[in-house]
Design brief:
Belongs to the universal ribosomal protein uL24 family. The protein is an alpha+beta fold and about 150 residues long. Helix content is about 15%, strand content about 25%. It folds into 2 domains: about 1-80, no CATH class; about 85-145, Roll (SH3 type barrels), CATH 2.30.30.
Length: about 150
Amino acid sequence: MRLTGILQKIGDASKKFSNLPDAYIKRSMEQVYWKTPRGKPQYLPRTVERKKFRFTTNRPWTGQFRQQNMPGTIRKKVFVEPVANWTFFKGDRVEVLAGKDKGKQGIVSQVFQERNWVIVAGLNCHLRKVADEKDYPGITIRSEAP
């Protein structure tokens, strides 16, 4: 049984979170390398486009997602077993079962069905420095990881 085809699509939770039309998400994600000319009878409608994307914490309709999946770049495949019945939703209270925050409770802030990730508010955080320049010390931001 092949599960890779299931993982190449956007999860239902991501679509509901976005509140954007499916046509817009599809159009913003597509990376067409080559298309046959339209309106000419001697050409069959064919399209060469990217079908394999690597999903991260950036949503598929954002510029960061496009930058991480630049046309022409190939990234290593991530093997994820899809969950049949997704039971975690934004706003649910959950308890962490493994990791450095084991036993702590928190509220789900983001759900990534494509990678089986859940981000819990206030847990599994790391500090990130933004706008660090020669004459400006920058700002430290706390960001959460899945």
